[in-house]
Amino acid sequence: xxxxxxxxxxxxxxxxxxxxxxxxxxxxxxxxxxxxxxxxxxxxxxxxxxxxxxxxxxxxxxxxxxxxxxxxxxxxxxxxxxxxxxxxxxxxxxxxxxxxxxxxxxxxxxxxxxxxxxxxxxxxxxxxxxxxxxxxxxxxxxxxxxxxxxxxxxxxxxxxxxxxxxxxxxxxxxxxxxxxxxxxxxxxxxxxxxxxxxxxxxxxxxxxxxxxxxxxxxxxxxxxxxxxxxxxxxxxxxxxxxxxxxxxxxxxxxxxxxxxxxxxxxxxxxxxxxxxxxxxxxxxxxxxxxxxxxxxxxxxxxxxxxxxxxxxxxxxxxxxxxxxxxxxxxx
Length: 331
Known about the structure:
Keywords: Cell membrane, Membrane, Transmembrane, Transmembrane helix. The protein is an all-alpha fold.
């Protein structure tokens, strides 16, 4: 299974790099939006697979980042890094505001809370007409400039390449962080939170940090969405988007950040193909795919550790307390 995932991942990465010169402009634009959604899936994998915090609410900071990036592009600066910083700050701020709801919850309760947060964000975006444009959305957003002094991204190919570079850089940064002590502590909290607390580590601070960090990632992805399609509306952040994200993470591997990105790209591409091949039946097919993936893929079955169900694993026996026959030392 791991070799198959690596082969599929390598093929997808090669295809993403070659895509601007191999497909038409509409498909390139669609791929750019798919990459933005794949970056949100990176945050979902960070929370669900690495930290053990299942979520269906990453569309909330995704929406906050998209609207913040769109407003920053029209009133503050048309430079991409500035818009990314503003959008990431908006996503992190929304995640920080919801921390009192997230910190004490775990498991299915946390999943339902995050789902409610995502749906409330969509409702707010649809009704806050003065800022978000309501259900009509924000249109006519100015083109983004990749860096100071460079021309604006005026073609679908240039916007796609900009999105691909930003997604690659941010995903690489997440992978680097996961190799540090902070990443080890997140995995330890996922596997045995009670033991981590008993060791003197501040688990609530870790949960708060990863939640806000994932919110910042989703916010940056929202800015990329605006750059790719130059339009944003509440329809971009509904429940179907949350379900697609979770399905992509399950297919790519709940504990694999890179796999989550590739899984989301594959799932969204399959959805768009199904809409053309099976009109009206795409949600049914994707729902069946989610059920099959949840039951058959080993990463989906093992995503919820035994300690989350209240059964703490027994500590290993100390070598000094083992019988002499077990240690190989003569009495």
